[in-house]
Amino acid sequence: MFGTITYEEIYKKENDFIFIDVRSPKEAKEEPLFGAINIPVLLDDERDIVGTLYVRESVEEAKKSAVKFISKRLPEIFEQIQDLYKNNKNKKIVMFCARGGMRSGSLFSLLNSLGFKVLKLEGGYKAYRAFISKKIEEFSQEINFIVLYGNTGVGKTELLYKLKEDGFNTLDLEGCANHRGSILGGVGLGSCHTQKKFDSLVYEALRKRNNNIVFVEGESRRIGRILIPEVLFNKIYKGEKVRINSDYEVRAKRLVNEYTAFENVNIQLEEALSVLKKHISEENINYYKKLVNDGNYEEVALELMKKYYDPMYGVSAKKHNFREQLIINDMETGMEELKRIYNEVSREVVK
């Protein structure tokens, strides 16, 4: 169709385009195309009203309501797009909605009738999502993963951060999910991301890699409410596995720093501890809650590592064949060891 473009045509030329997401702010936040500018034709509450009319009354009533909502904000929308058009002469503007339907279509038609040469993303966000899902599978097959395993608190995530700072490729699955993976994994982080946001973040991380060796943390397939795509999970599972160990005291201090650096820490920790009643006696749970309220966080961390996390991890660790097992009590030593392993894997990949 005239004026439409597929994401396949845009791929690897993303910097030549400006994406305008005309979906509601909530949709744009939970199901992002990163780098897009959100200029909604319907706000969140307006979209809810239109959707309710569509289901309970008729398509005609829903359209009437949508036109009323959109028309009052058209001057503002027009001004925003006009500014983007004027200030980005060397870039093409591409607008999209959920499926490339009425929201982006109506605005696309209006702007083109007014002389703006804009494009519409064929299939909208749904087509973009199908594209990145396919790409994640393709990337997964190309990549050689170095997978960091280890008990809670050994510093796997911190090592990933430092590796990224030093220019190595990393895939932070817990960061993409906004969840640490364990029962206490959401403490201090807010809501777990949606599956769609997770997939977009994974795609961006893998798309921007500078070679095909990527560091990642070993995870179960489910992280909070997120499922790692099957092809990606299987390729990580077959990666070069490195198990990291640290002294209990080092781990406890790290966990306290990570889990208590936010407001209302005690409330969130108590709520999370209540979930552990399935695995730990109620007597112990109440004891841990008292320690939390008294500010004895390190003691709680040590107790949970010894009585819950370590025994549980010991069972899962038996399933893996580790390339190496390292004792790492400081980040400098950890980085030296992982860089050494990276160089070894690089030589092996070249052969």
UniProtKB/TrEMBL annotation:
Organism of this sequence: Clostridium tarantellae
Signal peptide feature range: none
One GO biological process term: tRNA wobble uridine modification
Keyword Zinc: no
Full protein name: tRNA 2-selenouridine(34) synthase MnmH
Entry annotated with the keyword DNA damage: no
Organism superkingdom: Bacteria
Domain Rhodanese: 13-137
Key words, A-Z: Selenium
Family annotation (Pfam families): AAA_SelU, Rhodanese
GO molecular function: tRNA 2-selenouridine synthase activity
